[in-house]
Amino acid sequence: MKSAYSYIKESIRKNLKEKLIAWRKDKAIVKLEKPTDIGRARKLGYKDKKGFVVVKVRVKRGGRKRPKRKKGRRSKRQTIRKTLKMSYRWVAESRAQRKFTNLEVLNSYMIGKDGQHYFYEVILIDKNRPEIKKSELSWIAKPENKKRVLRGLTSAGKKSRGLRKKSRKLKTRPSLRAHKRKGK
Predict the structure, then answer these.
(1) Which of 10, 18, 24, 110 is most buried, with most CB under 10 Å away?
(2) What is the C-alpha separation between 47 and 28, in angstroms, rounded?
(3) pLDDT tens digits for 68-80?
(4) Cα dihedral angle (7, 12, 18, 23), rounded to 10 degrees?
(5) Longest dimension (CA), the chain
């Protein structure tokens, strides 16, 4: 016997192609009334009450190598070959945080991708609302959780930083900088 959320997920998959075409024409960051995948959002902490905001973020796919510098370098120093160690999901969360400065990011999930873009939905919380301060999410209103995305403290950030596993071989704790970037 299937749950209601599984039927919702099937309907999302059926109409995804038309939705992707429409999403491509939208702005990069769009505030939504409801999440597209309500089941996934509920699993990640979303509730349909005041203080919760869902944002759709479009992130460009492909390599993130910086363009070639023009002047005064030998050829070896002209390009920057470093790759960004942030995942696309983490990038989407941080862009949403920068757009909505009064909100805090709770979590995010991918809703689709095409040849050019990834599309994510980011769940944001208004930490100043009394509904949030009285709920089980009151921990997000504490000052130490301010701008947690930009410090890599969300689920996507911790995964990108290699903090999902505890190991003595991987020198990722307490941070990569503490071990001369030998981890990861």
Answers:
(1) 110
(2) 24
(3) 777 888 888 777 7
(4) 160
(5) 67
